[in-house]
TrEMBL record:
UniProt name for this protein: AP-3 complex subunit beta
Topology class, membrane: Peripheral membrane protein
Biased composition range(s): Basic and acidic residues: 243-260, 641-652, 699-710, 720-736, 764-783
Stretches with biased composition (Polar residues): 1-11
Domain AP-3 complex subunit beta C-terminal: 783-930
Highest taxon listed in the record's lineage: Eukaryota
The protein's role, per its UniProt record: Subunit of non-clathrin- and clathrin-associated adaptor protein complex 3 (AP-3) that plays a role in protein sorting in the late-Golgi/trans-Golgi network (TGN) and/or endosomes. The AP complexes mediate both the recruitment of clathrin to membranes and the recognition of sorting signals within the cytosolic tails of transmembrane cargo molecules. AP-3 appears to be involved in the sorting of a subset of transmembrane proteins targeted to lysosomes and lysosome-related organelles.
InterPro entries: AP3_beta, AP3B1/2_C, AP3B1_Ser, AP3B_C, AP_beta, ARM-like, ARM-type_fold, B-adaptin_app_sub_C
Keyword RNA-binding: no
Length: 1066
């Protein structure tokens, strides 16, 4: 079993014993599951013979059985050590011997059992074992040492200082297996020792994407707290832009303070940017906890203008199980109060489903209320109207409260909501009516003078409503407005006097209040009634009612004992009451860190670590600088020594320095693991449509990091420094092109030796001094690359063949210069070829019935677009099927996703009856199958239409040799490769049939193949120029293997799904 799988078993807690037990017993002979502990001892007599055997297989079987026995014993001891401590102490010498065992699994298990024996007397032994394990060669054993630290600290907190020394040592560990566990130990033992993190900050940021998922969660939460203490607030730069989103509850003084702060210029610390950059790919993680952790990090430490990207990832989590939904919705509810704009585009995702449990329905209602505004309130009210009819009475009541809040917040719909609530008063369901009464009461407090009729209507309901809260609300309303309904109020009091003894205590109190108010305003009619009610209250069983009765009698009925207050009785009872403020229950939760238990409970939980306020002045950033070690320099990944190329002398000395510093900043503070701008535009938009399947989303979550790394590497090799003339965007790409190689870390020692090499520009000079050492290290790289690695080893090999430029907008002279200064030994052999002819497919854009006689079809001619190199060429054929001339055909109101661009055709003055015309357009789909929506208009009408490209039309055919195809394919393995097995009829196997089927689906070029059973096709994406390599390998029988290699993994998986049925069918 690999050390990786054991790492996950350690995390899984209770399931560990079962898994280990099953594994151990599976190595025993099939005669019985628990043969090891049976009385038949002869079964293990052959172990000695097997161990001494000349056959390796026999020795291996014997070892498996011995390891299986040991692991079972250890699992048993972990379970029972705490209950039978005396017996467990007898086995300590055995564990100490096992800590020296050659097998890393045995060493780790022994340490785990030793740390599980909760006996204070063995604390020194445990401490010694932890120190030794922390220096172990196996990262799995070091990981277990980090776990043992927490157990020892809970057993004996006095060991804190010694444990901190071990934590400090383990924090310097470069293995991704250890990172998550040691940060967890840090959080448990010494969360306030921020100084231990300084030197390891950049390393943790760069290792983050490769750490196992639960380790990622712990590290992200720790780094969030760290960032709040070490960097200044990034929200200053946004305050000027987001006045419209200022908190509703902010006072004028707070706003004035913000205005003063806004005057100071703000520059984000490069280390701050590194953290934000390196956590971004994790928004596509499969693990909901990781996504939630990144979301809270962005919410608490990123500029407000950048926090919006978390909304799509959080909405994606709403497809998970109900427990995950509950936590995510709680956090969205808190966020939506302060920044409505983040979630408004996803309003429909929060509509309630009939299958949702009540807790989810209530939270969705809360979010819908927070997102309500003048533009969408009419849609929401129609939605609420349906919810009120729900069989879930608790949910229906919550909906009525929501309608009341909307009416309070949006004055334009107050009257509409009020009339709707009055209609609900005739509902058969008593709970609905009662809740409506309570909400109407609150709304009427805001403008009582205008609603006398409603009060009269509610007075009539007293005969039918039995819910105490509703009856009390009606009585309170009548009492407050007794002068506006002088005829009705005394009659209501008369009815209430009859039923006083049988009423609920809450209703009795309001009857007493109503009697007092009528006595003060209309004593002629109600004097006797009030005295009768006061007498009933005097002898009531409830002491609250008896006290209230005595108080009212003394206040309103003057006598000798009455004090001075009786003069002001009318002012006291009929004072103007302030209208209630209907607020969100999530308003005050924002002071808790999102995603924590304290935020969920809205109360501080044990172990909660509060986020500190931003410092006014940032602490010294140099504390995060790490000295460059010569050995680390020799470990620079292959392909980075391109500074030695003599052709670089063409540039000026300053440019040479800049290049050198760029190359050295593999994982420095200004780089990190950010994907290029081009990938952001392409990949992030690929899954932005709400109805995209979750499969490509989860795939892209795993693969986005490797994608970005390779795209960045290729871009840096083809561009160089010469394309600075190409504009700001090109500069950004080249600047960050080498930034993410430190992420391709291995499980063990090869993981991150280079992450701390270049924290400042000054180190670029020291890089020059070590050029000779780099040259020497180059010879050993093949040997170094053989170390175990979690990611593909291709990142450590030099890439000699550059891919076609993703942005071919360079001038011809500049291209010639760049080719002359080629950084590699061979020239580019990849170029766009002429597409293979296939019949053009047409798609309906506008049907003649919908278009009132104007019909439109679109097709993809598979030719380079004349309007732009990144655009897909689209031909639109317009037909006039009427007997009249159609005038002024044009396009307007383009509704395109972010990043997408469209070049429209010139307006057509007129189209004759039965006439037809074909026009060309260009659309930059940003390498995604998102829909381009726009309006096709005539002189009189406008029609909404959509163009959605098949994935195969987002490609351009590429001509390349078989050798280059294999080389490029070798660099696009691992997470950049998707494959499927196809079962098909033999008649589908001739080369001409396969070629025709593939080319029909995808606009790809045919690559010459030296093998009859392998067919290769090559293309590149139109927008980013990323390669798309398709291989169809025929197997024996009637099966074939379809393989697609590409950096654009989402497009690759969609293309695989489209090709598979086409190649399978006869």
């Amino acid at each position: 079993m690999s050390s990786n799988s054991f790492a996950y078993n350690e995390q899984s807690g209770g399931g560990e014993a079962t898994e280990l037990g099953q594994e151990a017993t599976s190595t025993i002979s099939p005669s019985g599951a628990f043969g090891l502990f049976s009385s038949d001892l002869k079964k293990n007599e052959d172990l000695k013979q097997m161990l001494e055997s000349n056959k390796d297989s026999a020795k291996l079987d014997a070892m498996k059985r011995i390891v299986g026995i040991k692991k079972l014993v250890y699992v048993y001891l972990v379970r029972y050590a705490e209950e039978q401590q005396d017996l467990a102490l007898l086995s300590i010498s055995t564990f100490q011997r096992a800590l020296k065992d050659p097998n890393q699994l045995i060493r780790a298990s022994a340490l785990r059992v030793l740390s599980s024996i909760r006996v204070p007397i063995i604390v020194p032994i445990m401490m010694l074992a932890i120190k030794e394990a922390a220096a172990d060669l196996s990262p799995y054993v070091r990981k277990n040492a980090a776990h043992a630290i927490q157990k020892l600290y809970s057993l004996d907190p006095e060991q804190k200082e010694m444990l901190i020394e071990v934590i400090e040592k383990l924090l310097k560990d470069k293995s991704i297996l250890v990172a998550g566990s040691v940060v967890m130990a840090f959080e448990e033992v010494c969360p306030d020792r921020i100084d231990l993190i300084h030197k390891n900050y950049r390393k943790l940021c760069n290792l983050l994407v490769d750490v196992e998922e639960w380790g990622q969660v712990v590290i992200i939460h720790m780094l969030t707290r760290y960032a709040r203490t070490q960097f200044v607030s990034p929200w200053r730069e946004d305050d000027g832009l987001e006045d419209n989103e200022k908190s509703f509850y902010d006072s004028d003084d707070e706003q004035k303070e913000k205005t003063d702060k806004r005057k100071k210029p703000y520059t984000m610390d490069p280390d701050h940017r590194l953290l934000i950059r390196n956590t971004k790919p994790l928004l596509q993680s499969r693990n909901a906890a990781v996504v939630m952790a990144v979301a809270q990090l962005y919410w608490h430490i990123s500029p407000k203008s950048e926090a919006g990207i978390i909304s799509k990832s959080l909405v994606r989590l709403l497809r998970s199980n109900r427990e995950v939904q509950y936590i995510v919705l709680q956090n969205i509810a808190t966020m939506s109060i302060q920044r409505k704009g983040m979630f408004e585009p996803y309003l429909k995702s929060f509509y309630v489903r009939s299958t949702d449990p009540t807790m989810i329905k209530t939270l969705k209602l809360e979010i819908l209320t927070n997102l309500a505004n003048e533009a969408n309130i009419s849609t929401l009210l129609r939605e609420f109207q349906t919810y009120v009819k729900s069989q879930d009475k608790q949910f229906a009541a919550a909906t009525i409260q929501t309608i009341g809040r909307c009416a309070t917040n949006i004055s334009e719909v107050t009257d509409t909501c009020l009339s709707g609530l009055v209609c609900l008063l005739s509902n058969r369901d008593e709970i609905v009516v009662a809740e409506s009464v309570v909400v109407i009461k609150k709304l009427l407090q805001m403008q009582p003078a205008q609603h006398g009729e409603i009060i009269k209507h509610m007075a009539k309901l007293l005969d039918s409503i039995t819910v105490p809260v509703a009856r009390a609300s009606i009585l309170w309303l009548i009492g407050e407005n007794c002068e506006r309904v002088p005829k009705i109020a005394p009659d209501v009091l008369r009815k209430m006097a009859k039923s006083f003894t049988s009423e609920d205590d809450l209703v009795k109190l309001q009857i007493l209040n109503l009697g007092a108010k009528l006595y003060l305003t209309n004593s002629k009619q109600t004097k006797l009634l009030t005295q009768y009610i006061l007498n009933l209250g005097k002898y009531d069983q409830n002491y609250d009612i008896r006290d209230r009765t005595r108080f009212i009698r003394q206040l309103i009925v003057p006598n000798e004992k009455s004090g001075a207050l009786s003069k002001y009785a009318k002012k006291i009872f009929l004072a103007q009451k302030p209208a209630p403020l209907l607020e969100s229950p999530f308003k005050d939760r924002d002071h808790f860190q999102l995603g924590t238990l304290s935020h969920t409970l809205n109360a501080k939980a044990a172990g909660y670590l509060e986020l500190s306020n931003w410092p006014e002045v940032a602490p010294d950033p140099s504390v995060r600088n790490v000295e460059v070690i010569d050995l680390a320099k020799e470990w620079t990944p292959a392909g980075k020594a391109k500074n030695e190329n003599p052709t670089k002398k063409f540039y000026s000395e300053s440019e040479e320095e800049e290049d050198s510093s760029d190359s050295s900043s593999d994982s420095g503070s200004e780089s990190g693991s950010e994907s290029g701008e081009e990938d952001e535009e392409g990949d992030s938009s690929e899954d932005s449509s709400e109805d995209s399947s979750s499969e490509p989303e989860s795939e892209s979550g795993h693969q986005s990091d490797t994608e970005n790394r390779r795209a960045a590497k290729r871009n840096s090799k083809t561009k160089g420094k010469g394309d600075s003339k190409d504009g700001k965007k090109e500069n950004e790409k080249s600047k960050t092109s080498d930034s993410s190689n430190a992420e391709s870390s291995s499980v063990e020692e090869s993981s991150s030796d280079s992450e701390s090499e270049s924290e400042s520009e000054s180190e670029s000079e020291s890089r020059k001094v070590t050029k000779e050492k780099e040259k020497k290290a180059k010879q050993d790289r093949n040997r170094l690359a053989t170390d175990a690695s979690l990611l593909d080893l291709d990142d450590f090999n030099p890439v000699s063949t550059p891919v076609a430029l993703p942005t071919p907008a360079l001038s011809p002279s500049l291209i010639a210069d760049l080719e002359g200064l080629n950084l590699s030994t061979s020239s580019s052999v990849i170029s766009v070829s002429t597409p293979v002819f296939v019949p053009m497919k047409t798609h309906v854009l506008l049907h003649r019935m919908s278009g009132k006689g104007l019909a439109a079809h679109y097709s993809f001619p598979r030719q380079p677009c004349i309007f732009g190199d990144k655009m897909v060429s689209v031909q639109i054929t317009l037909n006039n099927t009427t007997d009249k001339k159609i005038e002024n055909i044009h396009i307007r109101e383009k509704k395109l996703p972010i990043g997408m661009q469209m070049h429209v055709f010139n307006p057509i003055e007129s189209l004759e009856p039965e006439g037809s015309i074909t026009v060309s357009m260009g659309i930059d789909f940003c390498d995604s199958t998102q829909t381009a929506s726009f309006q096709l208009c005539t002189k009189d009408d406008c029609f909404s239409v959509n163009i959605q490209p098949p994935v195969g039309e987002l490609l351009l055919p590429v001509a390349m040799s078989e050798k280059d195809f294999k080389k490029e394919q070798g660099m696009l393995t691992g997470m950049n490769e998707t494959s499927a097995t196809i079962i098909t009829a033999p008649q589908n196997f001739p080369p001409s049939v396969i070629l025709q089927k593939v080319i029909n689906v995808a606009n790809a070029g045919v690559v010459p193949s030296g093998q009859d059973n392998i067919h290769r096709f090559a293309a590149k994406t139109v927008h980013s120029g990323s390669l798309m390599l398709v291989t169809v390998e025929l197997k024996e029988g009637s099966t074939a293997q379809l393989i697609i290699n590409t950096e654009k993994t989402v497009i690759g998986s969609v293309l695989l799904r489209e090709l598979k049925p086409v190649l399978s069918q006869g």
